[in-house]
């Protein structure tokens, strides 16, 4: 719901790791994505590991912070929402558990929420994909970080991850966070992976959890492989039914099928079909449909 308690839905795209491809954070790319895809939110994937915010140099840390600030400012100028994503992922040792970089996380979220106190278009995703951890650890982390954000921003939406790469809503339902407003739980899916819509239906229909798909793809969870259109269609039908907001991975020209731009294309702001891989073309069609925009012949 929006601030007037009206039904509202976000649909967007995630950047690739900002330590690798910060160039996609620019005015023209965001503006074209807004106009041609019809998206209303961008997710800024700020990796903690893999040379990112916590595991790189001080210089990299500053660069990552500056890129996030730049992304927020561009989205704000374009009247878009933006998700600040603490992209912990577990490729680097320790990074699988959100508690591992708790100190850095609190420092970061305090700094960014203090800087953007007056904004009402920022959502905070405080842990991307915990794995090989318990929900109790995720919950403990959330209970440390949420008050830091709330101290500066009273009602910004906070997106909370969960075990098994943010796919374990059942554990959340048994022991949800209490005492905070405007909390949503994240769910990630890759349609050609062994994943089923039952978990989402259970979370929405039975457990009444507020759910946000902050990352998904149509291929394997590796980010590679063919798109599974049948599975995608059943997923989008469920998301439509429950008015669930969703973000797709990712804004990149690297070679995996989840990177929407054609491999190696230097045209970082051209979002026409000729510059996109199948995933980009398909996702553009999907978002335009959700947003009620005309579907051009090129998207049929
Ligand atoms: C992948 C990238 C890949 C990179 C890897 C590790 O596509 O190039 O080597 O991250 O950094 C996720 C993650 C997201 C993944 C994506 C696709 O949140 O960072 O990107 N994915 O594998 N969860 C499930 C899939």
Structure explained in plain terms:
- The chain is of the alpha/beta class and 300 residues long.
- Helices cover 36% and strands 16% of the residues.
- Strands 7-6-5-4-3-2-1-8 form an eight-stranded parallel beta sheet.
- Helix 4 (135-152) links the parallel strand 4 and strand 5 (158-160).
- The longest helix has 20 residues, at 58-77.
- It is globular.
- The relative contact order is 0.13.
- Bound molecules: ligand IDC.
- The site of ligand IDC has 16 residues, from strand 6.
Concise overview:
The protein is α/β, with parallel strands linked by helices and 300 residues long. The protein is built from 9 helices and 8 strands.
**Biggest sheet features:** 8 strands, parallel
Given the C-alpha coordinates, what overall shape results?
A: globular
Structural class by sheet pairing and helices: alpha/beta
Radius of gyration: 18 Å
The chain-level mean pLDDT equals 97
Number of DSSP strand runs? 8
Task: Please render the helix and strand layout as text.
Blueprint: E1 11-15, H1 27-37, E2 41-47, H2 58-77, E3 81-87, H3 102-115, E4 122-125, H4 135-152, E5 158-160, H5 163-166, H6 169-174, E6 183-190, H7 198-206, E7 211-217, H8 229-241, E8 246-251, H9 278-290
Parallel strand pairs: 1-2, 1-8, 2-3, 3-4, 4-5, 5-6, 6-7
Helix pairs in contact: 3-4
Question: What attributes does this structure have?
Answer:
300 residues; alpha/beta; 8-stranded parallel β-sheet; 9 helices; globular; binds ligand IDC
